[in-house]
Write a structure and sequence with these properties.
The chain is mainly beta. It has helices at about 1-20, 70, and strands at about 30-40, 45-50, 55-60, 75, 80-85, 90-100, 105-120, 125-135, 145-150, 155-160. The protein has a domain at about 40-160. The relative contact order is 0.13.
Amino acid sequence: MFTKKLLSTLLLSIALLSASSAYADGCKDIVGSFIGQRGSTPDDAVLDQFTFHEDGTVYWNQSNVLVFPLTTGTSLPEVGTWEIQDDHLVITTIGVAAAPDRNDLNISNYHRDTQEFKIKDCNTLEVLHRVFRAIPLDEDPLTADGTIALDSTLHFDLKRVKVRTSDLDTDFRQPSNKMDRRSRPE
């Protein structure tokens, strides 16, 4: 009897350890906010912002959504879900694209974006593959195949946003500051 309980406990422990191998370096918590910059110059730099929630939902925004919306169009922040598949983090988000129309923006299509990340450690995700699909407004964005608008394997890292209490430790009298309290505009 004792041997059966010991064997059962051992097998359960092995199963749990095997399940956790999907996370790099023992990281089991990707809940939180991550940012990463794509592009190498100020003209083409885009900041991707992801927030992963404990319930498996994700929020994604890009810093370029308000760049020239009336001439090139834009998109809105997206929401979706995340899960671990084959040792990688995979997310799918749904959003809309807005295209310029005379002096305003009109919703032109839905888009469904699926992205794959490698979990490098608890504070770093590497973007591996991104596929964005444009879906007509008269089709269901959850099920329609749509048209592939982007299939990218551009790799870049996302880093966890951490609290920086050191930013609050300011002393306006320090010589390294270019502006002290007396010279600040009111």
